Amino acid sequence: MSTLAPAEEAAIAQAIGEARARATPLLLAGHATKDGVLRPVQAETTLSLKNHAGVTLYAPNELIISARAGTTLAEIEALVASAGQQIIAEPPDLTALLGTEGAQTLGGVVACNLSGPRRVTAGAMRDHVMGLRAVNGAGEIIRAGGRVLKNVTGLDLCKLLTGSFGTLAAITEITLKVLPAAETMATLVLPGLAARGGVAALSAALGAPFGASAAAWLPRAQAERVAELAPFAAAVALVRVEDFRPSVSYRGERLRALLTEFGAAEILDEAASRAVWRAVRDAAPLGEGEGNDAVWRVSVRPSAGPDIVAVVETLGGRCFLDWGGGLAWIAAEASAATHRAITQAARAAGGVWWLMRAPDALRASLDVVPAEPAPLAAIARRVKAAFDPAFILNPGRIHAGL
Amino acid sequence: MIDLPAPNPATLAARERIVAGLRALLPESGVIAEALRLKPYEADGLSAYRQVPLAVVLPETTEQVASVLRFCHENGVRVVPRGAGTSLSGGALPLADAVVVGLMRMNRILAIDYADRLAVVEPGVTNIGITEAVRGAGFFYAPDPSSQLACMIGGNVNMNSGGAHCLKYGVTANNLLGLKIVTIDGEIIEIGGAHLDAAGYDWLGILTGSEGQLAIVTEVTVRILRGPEGARAMLVAFRGNEIAGACVDAIITSGIIPVALEFMDRPAIHACEAFAHAGYPLDAEAMLIIEVEGSIAEQDDLLARIGAICRRFDPISLRISQSAEESAAIWKGRKGAFGAIGRISPDYLCMDGTIPTGRLPEVLRRIGEMSESYGLKVANIFHAGDGNLHPLIMFDANDPESFHRAEAFGADILKLCVEVGGCLTGEHGVGVEKRDLMTVQFNSVELDQQRRIKTAFDPDWLLNTAKVFPLTAALAPAVPHAA
Amino acid sequence: MQTNFTPEQLRDPEIAVANQILRTCVHCGFCTATCPTFVLLGDELDSPRGRIYLIKDMLESGRPASEEVVRHVDRCLSCLACMTTCPSGVDYMHLVDHARAHIEETYRRPWHDRALRALLARVLPRPRLFRAALIAARLARPLRFLLAGKGVLARRLAAMLAMAPARLPAPSPIERPRAHPAAGPRRQRVALLAGCAQQVLDPEINAATIRLLTRLGVEVVVAKGAGCCGALTHHMGKHDDAMEAARANIAAWSHEIEAGGLDAVIINASGCGTTVKDYGFMFRGEPEPWRARAARIAAIALDISEFLTRIGYRPTREPPGLTLAYHAACSLQHGQQITGEPKALLRAAGFTVAEPAEGHLCCGSAGTYNLMQPDIATRLRTRKLANIVATGADLIAAGNIGCLTQLASDTLPVVHTVQLLDWMAGGPEPAAVTKARAPRLAH
User: Fold this and answer.
1) Residue-by-residue DSSP string for A118-155
2) Residues B55 and B87 grouped into a single domain
3) Does B165 touch chain A (CB under 8 A)?
4) Which helix (H) or strand (E) holds B223?
5) Which of B51, B59, B169, B68 is nearest to B467 (CA)?
6) What is the DSSP letter of C120?
7) How far apart are CA B431 and CA B213, in angstroms?
8) A68 DSSP β-pair partners
9) Is residue B445 located within the same domain as residue B465?
10) C87 contacts on B by Cβ (under 8 Å)
11) Which of A142, A354, A389 sits opposite B199 (nearest CB)?
């Protein structure tokens, strides 16, 4: 097992070019915090982008920041926060959940298209990647998108590469749209609602004209793992509002009035809200790397979220819902049978899944994401070849043989 | 004038047989093949470019689209998809040997789900048609291109259309959940659905904005959003473009993102006022339309904050809309801007570059200089929040020389956009118009990368050929990487 | 948009006008969205932009109209929704008028088409003939089964029989030429276009207009020699017939202007109003004094709702607690761009006014369109009635006899705006209102 960690893009391109010439598979990584997500990659050599780091452009007046892939997310978050701005999709930090260490990089977050609670109202990471530089599997440097907020010039490779888990190209630099951070936030807590009632409340909130920015539901056991929610000693539906101070207090009250049919809501202040949503973002209510459980993310239409919850309950697993009910975070026994049950439930609800954590042997043998219908799988294979002709980049990471 | 590829002589020779084959697949009124009746299909919203197609088909179902594509694929016939034909980049320009697949008859709204905040519609539903269908429940479909009255969602998906309100709500790509597509070999594939995010490659993302290069869209699942409590527009008039540009910067850096932030220069103000009678300030050099949303108190609060910023830039006037009708008139002027130019000039070319917003004054100054040297008038409309610039170059199509100058002027503007760090097109698409300028923005490695993706979907390059990619390379599948 | 007329062609003043209109079009396509036939048929050839293209090609080539062009131009309702939508201000109305005249001159229609058009052009503008025809149609209704065929002719004849009202009102003396003096001091003097088909189908509309106006201090003249406005024949491309009808009106009203002065020519059928307001254009090439006279008449032509807004309207009765679905006639909202006035007057009169969805779409009446294109007209009517019923209104109000006839159904009564305004200002209760209230009284 060898690791290359060049600092310059040209060196990255050269490394990939040479690997291609030798047909040697490469495992792409930053600080390898998400190595256990999806399928294991069989590669002797790791190509780390962690040394290709640094912010290359930040124009707060144009809502744009560019940074090399190895830049830590923490560094970028601190920089934009200093100008009163934020990364829109609120990406999670899953190191605790995944039992890994180190600071995740921007490249890793983009390659995995990981988004947090704000995704339901403000879009995913993929929605805010305005431009990329990347090295494809032939060792060629390609640019996609640009450094402006609106751009439809040519095919949108930014979308294709974001969330491709390093299987098409090594992303070397990313330009993100950022937005002003809200002045303050507050959270409505509706205690005592079962999953279906809870999601109905979330839908009512998200369907109201009061600018809710996030909405989640936690069963009692998961809520009790969050210090600020434990006192409720009940399942909770959570709705967040973020804006200027007068708007937050006005909208909080309007939402409280709107949701009276679901019970009396309490409103958490800014500090408590920040803690609660950080926990939801990072899937902390599932517990940190407990036992040998596997972890899944399942995305369904919000109204089907409770169906997933019901299945997880029968499996004896733990779960909670973010994205207004549409994202289920699940921890349950790491077995093929459990996987089958969860993925069947997701499929029945017309949704998709990602196996986020499981023992290597298990994740190597499972459909860690849904298989694609044959005509699409054929296109996927051709698209893979269009970027990575020798199939050397993170082979098998998403689908076996791809 | 734009070059189109030489028609395939075999296809032209087989015209009768192809038309007969299509007639076997569709109802009688669904195939148009008479010369006279084909003529109105020769152009889209960019009428300077025209080409009568081989035939036009008007399918009514996904299965009919699939059967047409399968037939065309088997017979090596090129296909040009078309919706409302409002493209300003010639995205639906036919080819002499191509079958135009018009999706206007597929105009049904299939499902609306308020709990999950989505609607499932056919591609021929107009953009505004979605909003009208859900308005009663207080919802709307967010992307609002100026042509939203007429343009169809299938075209919006293919062009990744934006609009005046995308600063807050995003463009088409940010407001889709799923697609049903038909590939060139007639396979029907569902992409995404009612859930968020793709597991596996982001097919929804690459298909959106693909300008008909990859597949034909026959069903679209869009996100619908609950509308705000209210919205109000403010008109602020300035003494110069630089001042207005600086004001935009100041607003954004203050931490306020208005739901819309639109800039118009003097010629644009005058043309639009003649159409909309919205009370635009005719004495101004530049004008901003700034819109905010929320409750009345929230609107007041935001308008007060923004007004305070604007007053630092010595505005000539600052007017806050007092009624829904007044706001509607203000937007009518802006949204009818392109057509309104038709009142002061027989023809226009609408450019669509994007620039870093901070470079606006410099770019406008240089466009002004070009306008003088080319001897053609230009009006500028600008989505100031996101840097998307629409210079409208006025010319006379009955004077070929004036058209050639307009084309060259337009190309110079787009090169300028790329030079200052922007791009060729922010929302109208490359189409046929900017096809040959792609080399200004992308090098050959990058273009080849895109072409190989096209090939992965459409190996024989039958779909919307001669668009997006420079013609030199556009007619053959991209060369795979050498071994 | 680029045009390709030769200098010789452009010397023809008609072609020069067409060229100007075509040059204004920038081919943006906005018009397609609000065109009823495009919405229904989904073919650009049945949209304004497609028709403009076909017309352009026909005129540039100088060739006679072809069957294909005729088919698509015939499908145009002339609702003019496209003109409301068009940001560039394309004068589609005059372009399609020109095309229709060109078709009439250069295209030989099938015999039954010609016969039907000739019949309609002869009968409709002449109240006595029209009345006799309607009676005949009513008598022929039981024979409808004979028309079970699917041919165009059979369907058109069936449409005509279906359109003939089951009960025909007795002829009213009110349209006879005379002056109806103002009640009290005379504030204004106007001529009323007594019209043709409307007075046969519903004489109450003119009666209500005269009652309301005279009560408001307006002397109303029904001028001797005035009759059909010419719209019916104009839209069939029968240029000479239309000019003849218009000339008669211009002569009659000019005579009144010279005799006692006119403050306005009042029209209470908006389809006619659009045409009378266009007399200036129609006579632009005519020798004087006709050109000046026509322009003068056009300048003082007003829809009844415009005139009432101008002189002021106040109800005298208590609000009746009725909800109206206001149906905006295309000739009012698109042809004359009158949108706010009728609704404001009805609200002022004490009615709750509901506006149906897709208010911009035509109901399918469009002059003789519902007779010539029964399939499309029926689909539009069904769509319109569904939107109207969805408002939950008690009855339908509109300002055009064509729409009133088209929308008559067992579902909701229809009534002219002016009858409601007259009622609330002291006139008799319209029969439609009595009908609308009947089921509620029965409770």
Assistant:
1) THHHH--HHHHEEEEEEEETTS-EEEEE-SSS---SSS
2) yes
3) no
4) strand B216-223
5) B51
6) H
7) 10
8) A173
9) yes
10) 275, 336-340, 342
11) A354
| Domain harbouring B149, CATH code | 3.30.465.10
Counting as contact any 3 or more CB pairs under 8 A, the partners of C are: B
End-to-end C-alpha distance for chain C, whole angstroms: 62
CA distance C100 to chain B (A): 18
Instruction: Name the residue range of residue B50's domain.
Output: 9-102
Is residue B91 assigned to a domain?
yes
If asked whether residues B326 and B351 sit together in one domain, one would say no
Closest CA to A319 of A195, A204, A166: A195
Backbone angles phi, psi at A109, to 5 degrees: -65, -40
Which residue of C10, C20, C25, C27 to mutate against B (max B Cβ within 10 Å)?
Answer: C27
Are B123 and B83 contacting, i.e. CB atoms less than 8 angstroms apart? Answer: yes
- The pTM for the full model equals 0.94
Examine the pLDDT at A322 and tell me if it is beyond 60: yes
pLDDT tens profile A268-306: 999 999 999 999 999 999 987 666 899 999 999 999 999
Q: Is B422 on the interface with A (CB under 8 A)?
A: yes
Q: The CATH number of the domain where B82 resides is what?
A: 3.30.43.10
In a domain, B3, yes or no: no
Residue C22's φ and ψ, nearest 5 degrees, are -65, -35
* In-domain check, residue B2: no
Of A180-194, B462-476, C377-391, minimum mean pLDDT range: B462-476
ipTM above threshold 0.90? yes
Residue of A18 and B1 predicted with greater confidence: A18
**Chain B: closest CA distance from residue C3 (Å):** 7
Whether residue C147 is predicted with pLDDT greater than 70 in this model: the reply is no
Residues of B with Cβ-Cβ distance to C86 under 8 angstroms = 339
Query: Looking at chain B, which residue has its C-alpha nearest residue C82?
Result: B150
**CA–CA distance, A43 with A22 (Å, rounded to integer):** 13
What is the residue whose two structure tokens read 């959003």?
A: B225
- Which residue of chain A has the CA closest to B430? A153
Q: Looking at chain A, which subunits does it touch, using at least 3 CB pairs closer than 8 Å as the criterion? A: B
Q: In chain B, how many domains are there?
A: 5
For the sheet containing C352-354, what is the strand order?
A: C352-354, C323-326, C395-398, C414-416
Residue B478's pLDDT band, with cuts at 50, 70 and 90, is low
Show which of B315, B337, B359 is a domain's final residue.
B337
pLDDT tens, position by position, B148-192? 999 999 999 999 999 888 888 999 999 999 999 999 999 999 999
Q: What domains lie within chain A, and their CATH numbers?
A: 2-180 (3.30.465.10), 184-281 (3.30.70.2190), 284-365 (3.30.70.120)
Mark whether B172 and B133 lie in a shared domain. yes
CB atoms within 10 A of CB A139: 19
Query: How many CB atoms are located within 10 Å of the residue B16 CB?
Result: 9
C439 falls in which pLDDT band (50, 70, 90)?
A: low
Q: Do B149 and C57 touch (CB under 8 A)?
A: no
Q: Using the 8-state DSSP alphabet, how is residue B426 labeled?
A: S
**Domain at B249, CATH number:** 3.30.70.3450
**Residue B128 within a domain:** yes
- The residues that bridge with C190 in the sheet, in sequence order, are C220, C264
- Please give the Cα distance from C179 to C221 (Å, whole number): 4
Q: Distance (Å, rounded) from C-alpha C429 to C-alpha C427?
A: 7
Q: Which residues of B touch A37 (CB under 8 A)?
A: none
**What would the mean pLDDT of B91-104 be, rounded to a whole number?**
97
Amino acid identity, position A310: A
Give the phi and the psi of residue A235 in degrees, each rounded to 5. Answer: -65, 150
Residues B88 and B118 in one domain: no
Structure tokens at B376: 């053609």
> Is residue A132 classed exposed, middle or buried when 0-12, 13-18 and 19+ CB atoms within 10 A define those classes?
buried
pLDDT of residue C130: 87
Q: Does B441 touch chain A (CB under 8 A)?
A: yes
